[in-house]
C-alpha cells in the first residue's frame, strides 16, 4: 500500500468553489426574497444572518441553492442537518480533482460518472452540488426513513435533478454498503460525512462550544443551528468506529469502486484508519486537506484497484463520460 499523501493544507476554499469571499446578501435576497427577513447588520455593520438561528441558516441555504445551483424547491424538516454549503462544495471539488489526477488533469464529467453518497441526509446537498457542477449521477443512501422521503421530494421537485439522483433506504442501521449496493453496480467515487461524535452527550457538548463561540449560549440546552438527528451527529464509538466499518465493508466490494472516500474530522482518527486500510490491502491511500477560514479538514481516499485495473476502468468508463 502506498504511503498516504502528505500535502500542505490550502489557505482557503477550492479555486472552483462558487462561495469565495463574503456572501452577497443583496444578490441572495434577489434570488430568494424570503431571506430578507433574516438579514441585518452584524457587529461590524455589514449585512449578515444570525448563524445561531436554524430558520436563518435554512433560508440562507435555500437562497444559495437557488442562486448558484438552480434549485428552486428545497426544504427540510425541523431538527434535520442544514449543512454549510461552502464546505460541502469544497469536498465535491476536491473529489473532482482526485479523478482528474488520474485523467491527465481533466475532470471526468457527465452522467457516465456514478457517485455513491453514504448518508445523503434529508438535505441532499452533495448530489445537488455534484450533479450541477459536473453532471455526475448519484445514489444516496440513508438509514432514516423521513430523510429518505424528504430527499426524494427535493429530487422530484427540481427538474435540474431529474434522472440524476436515486435515494435508497438502508434497512440496517449497522450496515453501510450491504443491502443498498448491488454486486453488479460500479461507482467512480463514494463520499461520506460520518457522524463525528461517540454519544449524544458529546454531540451536545460540541453544540454548547459552538454556541459559546457564536455568543449565543443563553438557554438551558444548546440550539443546533445546523441541526442534525442522532444518526447524523453521533454513533457508538464515534467516527473512528464508523470509519473502521466503512473500510471493512469497502473491502467486500473491492472491484466495485474506483475511489472510496470519507471525511475525517479528527486528526487522531487517521492512524487507526491507515492501519485498517493497510491490513485490508488497499492498493493506494491518499489524504486530501481542505480549509475553510480557520477550520482545516480533510478526507481520506483509498482504492483496491491496481494501476492496471484503474487504467482499464478509465478507458472503459471515463472516455464515455467526457
Automatic annotation (TrEMBL):
<dbReference type="GO" id="GO:0052907">
    <property type="term" value="F:23S rRNA (adenine(1618)-N(6))-methyltransferase activity"/>
</dbReference>
<keyword id="KW-0489">Methyltransferase</keyword>
<keyword id="KW-0698">rRNA processing</keyword>
<comment type="similarity">
    <text>Belongs to the methyltransferase superfamily. METTL16/RlmF family.</text>
</comment>
<dbReference type="InterPro" id="IPR010286">
    <property type="entry name" value="METTL16/RlmF"/>
</dbReference>
<feature type="region of interest" description="Disordered">
    <location>
        <begin position="202"/>
        <end position="222"/>
    </location>
</feature>
<keyword id="KW-0949">S-adenosyl-L-methionine</keyword>
<dbReference type="InterPro" id="IPR016909">
    <property type="entry name" value="rRNA_lsu_MeTfrase_F"/>
</dbReference>
<dbReference type="GO" id="GO:0070475">
    <property type="term" value="P:rRNA base methylation"/>
</dbReference>
<dbReference type="GO" id="GO:0005737">
    <property type="term" value="C:cytoplasm"/>
</dbReference>
<dbReference type="Pfam" id="PF05971">
    <property type="entry name" value="Methyltransf_10"/>
</dbReference>
<keyword id="KW-0808">Transferase</keyword>
<dbReference type="InterPro" id="IPR029063">
    <property type="entry name" value="SAM-dependent_MTases_sf"/>
</dbReference>
<keyword id="KW-0963">Cytoplasm</keyword>
<comment type="function">
    <text>Specifically methylates the adenine in position 1618 of 23S rRNA.</text>
</comment>
<protein>
    <recommendedName>
        <fullName>Ribosomal RNA large subunit methyltransferase F</fullName>
        <ecNumber>2.1.1.181</ecNumber>
    </recommendedName>
</protein>
Amino acid at each position: 500500500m502506498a504511503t498516504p499523501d502528505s500535502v500542505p493544507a490550502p489557505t482557503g476554499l477550492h479555486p472552483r468553489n462558487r462561495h469565495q469571499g463574503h456572501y452577497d446578501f443583496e444578490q441572495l435576497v434577489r434570488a430568494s426574497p424570503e431571506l430578507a427577513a433574516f438579514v441585518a447588520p452584524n457587529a461590524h455593520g455589514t449585512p449578515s444572518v444570525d448563524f445561531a438561528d436554524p430558520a436563518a441558516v435554512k433560508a440562507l441555504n435555500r437562497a444559495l441553492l437557488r442562486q448558484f445551483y438552480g434549485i428552486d424547491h428545497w426544504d427540510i424538516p425541523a431538527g434535520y442537518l442544514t449543512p454549510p454549503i461552502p464546505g460541502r462544495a469544497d469536498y465535491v471539488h476536491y473529489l473532482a480533482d482526485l479523478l482528474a489526477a488520474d485523467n491527465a488533469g481533466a475532470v471526468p464529467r457527465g452522467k457516465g460518472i456514478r457517485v455513491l453518497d453514504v448518508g445523503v441526509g434529508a438535505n441532499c446537498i452533495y448530489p445537488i452540488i455534484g450533479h450541477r457542477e459536473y453532471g455526475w449521477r448519484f445514489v444516496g443512501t440513508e438509514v432514516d426513513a423521513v430523510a429518505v422521503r424528504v430527499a426524494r421530494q427535493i429530487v422530484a421537485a427540481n427538474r435540474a435533478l431529474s434522472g440524476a439522483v436515486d435515494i435508497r433506504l438502508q434497512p440496517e442501521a449497522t450496515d453501510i454498503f450491504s443491502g443498498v449496493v448491488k454486486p453488479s453496480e460500479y461507482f467512480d467515487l463514494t463520499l461520506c460525512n460520518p457522524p463525528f461524535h461517540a454519544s449524544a452527550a458529546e454531540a451536545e457538548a460540541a453544540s454548547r462550544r459552538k454556541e459559546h463561540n457564536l455568543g449565543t449560549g443563553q438557554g438551558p440546552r444548546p440550539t443546533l443551528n445546523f441541526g442534525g438527528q442522532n444518526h447524523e451527529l453521533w454513533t457508538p464509538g464515534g467516527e473512528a468506529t464508523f470509519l473502521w466499518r466503512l473500510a471493512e465493508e469497502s473491502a467486500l466490494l473491492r472491484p466495485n469502486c474506483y475511489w472510496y472516500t470519507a471525511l475525517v474530522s479528527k486528526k487522531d482518527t487517521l492512524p487507526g484508519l491507515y492501519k485498517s486500510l493497510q491490513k485490508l490491502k488497499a492498493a493506494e491511500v491518499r489524504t486530501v486537506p481542505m480549509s475553510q477560514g480557520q477550520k482545516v479538514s480533510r478526507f481520506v481516499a483509498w482504492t483496491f484497484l491496481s494501476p492496471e485495473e484503474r487504467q482499464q476502468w478509465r478507458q472503459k468508463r471515463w472516455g464515455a463520460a467526457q
